[in-house]
């Protein structure tokens, strides 16, 4: 049997007990416990919030099971997605970010889809090859801005409000250090501002705590100086980094209901929703917003995606929500493989693992609780998405960016999750959905309204 077997099987000791199947890709950690009079203890913790504790009569057997589990999936091609034999390439074309741009009216007289990153010619490897940028921005401006941004991630369009012309753009932090500046980057921001002639100012939302952004200046990075960017207002709307989120989740799972408040998880959820609401209300009022964190692939997709859901009912439909994930998370390089720990490497540390996408789904669930008729999909769908982000049964969520997925030929070698959903749509529809229920969602973010989702 190949090592990418889908479900290692554990059976409870009693013949009358249920049989439990655990996907090995769902295993977060395996721990050896103390030896007891009944046997050796083995604890398995899961990425989808389960914990199993086994008492194995023989210590050697316990060690053999432990050794087997910690050596599973050390190579991407050993993951379950590569075990499937049939090809469903058509399933990969069900969702397209460029169809979404067309729905938003792009390209138009303000915005253009540019091929300047085609073949990753300018080495922006974590962005898609075709990018939506201001029509008036010259190629030299785009390339110059890219060289001044962390990982080359220059400001590009994410969402366009068709009625008022305001937009949401995304990027990474600039390489300002303590006093550096870049004329091309300043020009590009001005071009972004001019795509919205109804507004005379541009908001830049930095989702990092200000002290963290200041610390980045010491390593040649940092944030924009309002004195160098005309008609720009800078807003720090702090959301903690991946290390704080990982720690918070671990504390939450350890405490569960007891001491939940001390984990800080609900505070982080509220911070994300508050930042997203600020972005959404700014765009609704006619102001264009540029959003970034450090590299622009964690807090940036979280807040932009949530703001888009608040602004646009389309993203609350099943198809629209999938499009949002495809665009903001997959195409723009959220590091699913690193953040979800898809590849087990015993000698590596786990500092890249963080529940960023889990937090996003939690925030969506918070909105669903407050606006139960506004979403075309149900809670079961959110749980299914979360499950398969970690299951590695589909190619969509493998690797860290679109370029890596193309190099692995995942559209030819694996199934698409969107195809699976399209054949099981009836399971995921919300029976009380009302497409006319609300055009703009403004959640009540008082602490008492932020709910505990895991049960």
Automatic annotation (TrEMBL):
Keywords: Lipid metabolism. GO terms for cellular component: cytoplasm. It comes from the Eukaryota. The keyword DNA repair does not apply. GO terms for molecular function: phosphatidylinositol-3,5-bisphosphate phosphatase activity; phosphatidylinositol-3-phosphate phosphatase activity. SUPFAM superfamilies: (Phosphotyrosine protein) phosphatases II (SSF52799). Residues 91-455 form the Myotubularin phosphatase domain. The active site is at residue 293. InterPro entries: Myotubularin, Myotubularin-like_Pase_dom, PH-GRAM_MTMR6-9, PH-like_dom_sf, Prot-tyrosine_phosphatase-like, Tyr_Pase_AS, Tyr_Pase_cat. Substrate binds at residues 241-242, 293-299. One of its GO terms (biological process) is phosphatidylinositol dephosphorylation. PANTHER family: MYOTUBULARIN-RELATED, PHOSPHATIDYLINOSITOL-3-PHOSPHATE PHOSPHATASE. Belongs to the protein-tyrosine phosphatase family. Non-receptor class myotubularin subfamily. This is Phosphatidylinositol-3-phosphatase. It comes from Soboliphyme baturini.
């Amino acid at each position: 049997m190949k090592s990418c077997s889908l479900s290692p099987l554990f059976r409870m000791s009693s013949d009358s007990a249920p049989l439990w199947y655990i996907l090995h890709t769902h295993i977060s950690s395996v721990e050896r416990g103390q030896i007891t009079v009944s046997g050796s203890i083995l604890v398995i913790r899961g990425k989808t919030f389960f914990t199993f504790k086994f008492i194995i009569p023989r210590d050697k057997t316990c060690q053999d099971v432990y050794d087997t589990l910690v050596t599973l999936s050390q190579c991407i091609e050993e993951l379950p997605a590569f075990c499937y034999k049939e090809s469903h390439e058509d399933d990969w074309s069900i969702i397209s970010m460029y169809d979404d741009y067309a729905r938003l009216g792009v390209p138009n007289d303000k915005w253009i889809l540019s091929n300047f990153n085609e073949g990753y010619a300018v080495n922006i490897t974590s962005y898609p090859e075709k990018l939506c940028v201001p029509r008036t921005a010259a190629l030299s401006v785009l390339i110059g801005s890219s060289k001044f941004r962390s990982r080359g991630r220059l400001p590009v369009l994410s969402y366009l409000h068709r009625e008022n012309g305001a937009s949401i753009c995304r990027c990474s932090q600039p390489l300002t250090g303590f006093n550096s500046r870049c004329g091309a980057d300043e020009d590009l921001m001005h071009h972004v501002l001019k795509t919205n002639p109804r507004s005379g100012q541009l908001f830049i939302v930095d989702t990092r705590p200000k002290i963290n952004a200041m610390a980045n200046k010491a390593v040649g990075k940092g944030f924009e100086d309002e004195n160098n960017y005309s008609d720009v207002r800078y807003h720090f709307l702090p959301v903690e980094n991946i290390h704080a989120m990982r720690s918070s989740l671990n504390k939450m799972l350890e405490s569960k209901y007891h001491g939940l408040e001390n984990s800080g998880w609900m505070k982080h959820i509220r911070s994300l929703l508050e930042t997203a609401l600020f972005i959404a209300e700014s765009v609704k009022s006619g102001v264009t917003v540029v959003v970034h964190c450090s590299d622009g692939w964690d807090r940036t997709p979280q807040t932009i995606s949530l703001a888009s859901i608040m602004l646009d009912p389309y993203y609350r439909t099943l198809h629209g929500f999938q499009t949002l994930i495809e665009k903001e998370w997959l195409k723009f390089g959220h590091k699913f493989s690193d953040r979800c720990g898809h590849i087990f490497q015993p000698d590596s540390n786990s500092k890249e693992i963080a529940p960023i996408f889990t937090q996003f789904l939690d925030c969506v669930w918070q909105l669903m609780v407050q606006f139960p008729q506004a979403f075309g999909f149900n809670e079961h769908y959110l749980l299914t998405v979360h499950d398969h982000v970690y299951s590695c049964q589909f190619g969509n969520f493998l690797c860290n960016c679109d370029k890596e997925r193309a190099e692995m030929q995942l559209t030819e070698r694996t199934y698409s999750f969107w195809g699976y959903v399209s054949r099981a749509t009836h399971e995921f529809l919300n029976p009380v959905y009302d497409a006319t229920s609300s055009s703009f969602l403004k959640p009540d973010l008082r602490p008492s309204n932020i709910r505990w989702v895991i049960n």
